[in-house]
Structure of Ankyrin repeat protein:
Amino acid sequence: MASFRRDHMEGIHAAGTHLSKCRLKFAAAEGAYGTFMGHQSAVVEAAAQGARRDVSRLLESSNNIPIQDLNYAIFQAAKRGHKYILQSLIDAGGTDLNAAMEAAGWSGHTHIVDELMLSGHVHIGRAFLGAMLACRDNMIDHLISIADTDGLESGLRVGASLIWSRMPDEVDFLSRVIDQLVKAGAKTFEDALLSSCNGTAILHLNGHSILQKSKIFDRLVLESSNLTKDFYNSLLLQACVCFLYRMTILEAGDAALVDHCDVSVFVCESVPFLPKVKRMQHILESGTATQDMLKIFSILFRNGIGLISPQLHAFVDVPIEKARALLQIQDPSQGEPQATGASSRLRIESRAEWPLKMMKYLLTQCSVNSECAIEQAVASSTHLGVMLPVLELLVGCDCLAITDPYVVLAFATAFRQTAAIRYLLDIIPKPVNVRPMMEAFKTAASENIGPEGVLFLLHLNFLDDAKATLRAASMVAELEDTTPDLKLWLREEWSKEAYNEGVQTGSSHYLNLMRVIKLGQGRLCIRELPAQLQAAIGYLPLYKDCCKTPGTLLSQRQKGELVEALRHLYRGSRKVSEAEILRADKAKLLFLLGACLPEWSQLPADGDVRTPMSLYNNRI
């Protein structure tokens, strides 16, 4: 898993840069801290203004500056070239040196790049990305002069991933940069090709200087000395996955347009100089997504003669009508006349079929189903967030069996693909093989992307045994490789101590509720309300929170609060004993609490009501 991430992340990161020339090209790094734009802490403002003394004073006077503020301040200091402020923030505990390196590359501060390189904990590839987004010749020259072989290869990967999203003058710049990198010693064109295929997912119109871009892509293919059949097939599947992502976003943008909502900025940036709705209409009418897809495949097919199956020769410069027939995709123009909105949806739905139908054609008709090719497709779909339809297709074509489902589960968990996690747990044979399942769990826990996927897996009781799953949570919390954020969550929510704290919280809440009921002096006397309404006042938030928690397993903290609530609510009723409450699972506990509440407040215990991200955001 780590190797896939190493190969893909720089290209994926570049492919996530959605902004056109008319906006800040460095929004990739800025976006990492977008949630803090509305909250400029004092240390962030001081770093942005270059106020070295103020930064030092703030760092000395406060021992609990949030790590997010420190990292955003690091970003601001690097962006503005404040070397000494940057070092002070790093010494104070700031950790996001990669964003700082990218900021320095974009803003042209070579002295910041040199300073960060001395730390030994940051990769020069991020500086290449910033410099290429900003088209800074001087910074590129400096980076090439100090880069080792790995750094040059990283620059080549980043350049290859960006070509599809750039405007004509920027493509000329990237072409020159790639020439410089090759002359300086970069030669791993295979990795550059993988990154470039990821770049095809960019939501800009590739119609801009498509011939220029194709020439660069052609060169990457021709210069690749080890273009084996297996590697070539991996490229084909990966390109399909990227276009699936692109067309999924287009579909979402079309729904927003039809419903008269604000159109997604990711789609609108594709045609930067038109009003939002006009841009969306332009994309819908032009069919550029499908045409771009066929163009990319034609380039690959022409250069892959001798490596491709005979069936693929039919796709070399094939007209769109013939390609539609080969893939058995309905021509939307043959449908019955419909209203404008419905017709627009039909066009999008028809186009959204293309990448999946093309992938199915490759898998079933062209035998592009080696282990390496399948793994590359899964890796790309995970990064781009379209894992579930890809998995469903692979299962339908009997192709997922050639790869390890537990490795795939680790991917899905690390990248928070909750729908894919559910799907995989359903298709993994029961009883689960505990050893590889635990390896997948530990691998995902070591990926510093966010704790939500791992926590979601716990809520789903991934070992099919509540006690075993809780033991797994305790064990992973103590592993050295587990990320700090996840360790904190596991200890605060899933440990035995968390259960006891939940019980204490429940007890304190009950006492406070009783004080309000018995001593309240307001015009509305709570103790005069029906018992169910009194219970709703005290416990409806807890009930809703537990109902909306995904899966069949509550965290230990949640269970502690729920058990304590039920102890008080059922004390003396003889309807249920304390021992029954302690033994009860999530469904039983929620049934017991729901029985104490008014009928209008009843909720299904459905784990899909909200995602783990929203579930944990209020505390992270």
